[in-house]
């Protein structure tokens, strides 16, 4: 069950007007197409692990759990500090956790749900007692600054939850989870170069921009709505919830058109769909935990509220989960 929640954003805020100074765009154009007004960008001295550790510290404070009580750290990220090793051991070290289990999960914007499912399984098996699950990104570092289609959308940040064992009737209980993937769509959301198979960012097959993130937006839009809607419906059925039983939809904050269309497809009124994309942009794996913490800070959730979480990302990957909100105070 969820016992604590926290988040961390970089200090530098970049508004749409800031971007319009170097791109052929405007505040009106960006808002109309994405719903985004601002995003946060990490400076050169801030790593993904710094944001992850900051979010984890706040989640631990929210759970009233000392670092000594943590036995596992899972970091969902597309932008690790370095290709090797994983970022999670660095986060554990920054938190002063000692020799705990620590590893990364890579499923792009679905990464937090994949990490949540992994943590739940570890706890259910008895392999872990308290797991810190973090979604953290410095996505700005893999964006082409001249590409209007991506550079206006994404931001940096981190969100985290603390998971512990519990009972199904407790506020904070994590219900059914569903994950999926389709590798035939690998090129729809990708960074083409940089892996062992394509190490040269300026290779003939990728061009000089091969090191940058690319996305086929129109195809992704419809696939995201379809896949998130389907897996959300399945999770509702497994949880025994009707659509009207859901207090809040917390979906990946891709852009406002996707979240609005998804809520409509599921049948959830717009006022019960959590949104913070205007303030932080699309933060990939950090998106859902950031939205949870920001909504919690605004006291939108009450203990026992039924939340439906769902995400879609590169891979292609997707997932959904049912969650009842815990009785925790904002930090």
Automatic annotation (TrEMBL):
Annotated segments matching region ACP-binding: 253-257
GO cellular component: cytoplasm
Keyword Nucleotide-binding: no
Main localisation: cytoplasm
Enzyme Commission identifier(s): 2.3.1.180
Domain Beta-ketoacyl-[acyl-carrier-protein] synthase III C-terminal: 237-325
Family (UniProt): Belongs to the thiolase-like superfamily. FabH family.
SUPFAM superfamilies: Thiolase-like
Pfam families from the UniProt entry: ACP_syn_III, ACP_syn_III_C
Top-level class of the enzyme under EC nomenclature: transferase
GO MF term set: 3-oxoacyl-[acyl-carrier-protein] synthase activity; beta-ketoacyl-acyl-carrier-protein synthase III activity
Subunit description: Homodimer.
Name of the protein in its database record: Beta-ketoacyl-[acyl-carrier-protein] synthase III
UniProt keywords, alphabetically: Acyltransferase, Cytoplasm, Fatty acid biosynthesis, Fatty acid metabolism, Lipid biosynthesis, Lipid metabolism, Multifunctional enzyme, Transferase
Glycosyltransferase in keyword set: no
Domain remark from Swiss-Prot or TrEMBL: The last Arg residue of the ACP-binding site is essential for the weak association between ACP/AcpP and FabH.
Beta-ketoacyl-[acyl-carrier-protein] synthase III N-terminal domain boundaries: 103-183
Gene: fabH3
Any one GO biological process: secondary metabolite biosynthetic process
Subcellular location: Cytoplasm
Reactions catalysed according to its record: 2-methylpropanoyl-CoA + malonyl-[ACP] + H(+) = 4-methyl-3-oxopentanoyl-[ACP] + CO2 + CoA; 3-methylbutanoyl-CoA + malonyl-[ACP] + H(+) = 5-methyl-3-oxohexanoyl-[ACP] + CO2 + CoA; malonyl-[ACP] + acetyl-CoA + H(+) = 3-oxobutanoyl-[ACP] + CO2 + CoA; (2S)-2-methylbutanoyl-CoA + malonyl-[ACP] + H(+) = (4S)-4-methyl-3-oxohexanoyl-[ACP] + CO2 + CoA
């Amino acid at each position: 069950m969820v016992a604590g929640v926290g988040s961390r954003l970089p200090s530098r805020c970049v508004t749409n007007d800031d971007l319009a100074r170097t791109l052929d765009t405007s505040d009106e154009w960006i808002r109309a197409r994405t719903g985004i007004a601002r995003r946060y960008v990490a400076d050169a001295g801030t790593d993904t692990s710094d944001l992850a550790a900051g979010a984890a510290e706040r989640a631990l404070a929210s759970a009233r759990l000392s670092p000594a009580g943590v036995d596992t750290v899972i970091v969902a990220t597309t932008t690790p500090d370095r290709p090797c090793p994983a970022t999670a051991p660095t986060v554990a070290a920054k938190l002063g956790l000692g020799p705990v289990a620590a590893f990364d999960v890579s499923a792009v914007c679905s990464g937090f749900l994949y990490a949540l499912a992994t943590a739940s399984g570890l706890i259910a098996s008895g392999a872990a007692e308290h797991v810190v699950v973090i979604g953290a990104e410095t996505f700005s570092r893999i964006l082409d600054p001249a590409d209007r289609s991506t550079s206006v959308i994404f931001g940096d940040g981190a969100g985290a939850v603390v998971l512990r064992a519990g009972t199904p009737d407790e506020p904070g209980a994590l219900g059914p989870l569903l994950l999926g993937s389709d590798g035939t769509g690998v090129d729809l959301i990708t960074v083409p170069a940089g892996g062992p198979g394509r190490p040269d960012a300026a290779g003939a097959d990728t061009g000089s921009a091969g090191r940058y993130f690319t996305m086929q937006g129109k195809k992704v839009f419809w696939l995201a709505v379809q896949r998130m809607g389907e897996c959300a419906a399945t999770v509702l059925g497994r949880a025994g919830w009707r659509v009207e039983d859901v207090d809040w939809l917390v979906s990946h904050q891709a852009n406002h058109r996707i979240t609005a269309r998804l809520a409509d497809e599921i049948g959830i009124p717009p006022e019960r769909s959590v949104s913070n994309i205007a303030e932080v942009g699309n933060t990939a794996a950090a998106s859902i935990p950031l939205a949870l913490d920001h909504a919690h800070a605004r006291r939108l959730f009450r203990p026992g509220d039924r939340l439906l979480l769902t995400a879609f990302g590169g891979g292609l990957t997707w997932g959904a989960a049912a969650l009842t909100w815990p009785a925790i105070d904002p930090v």
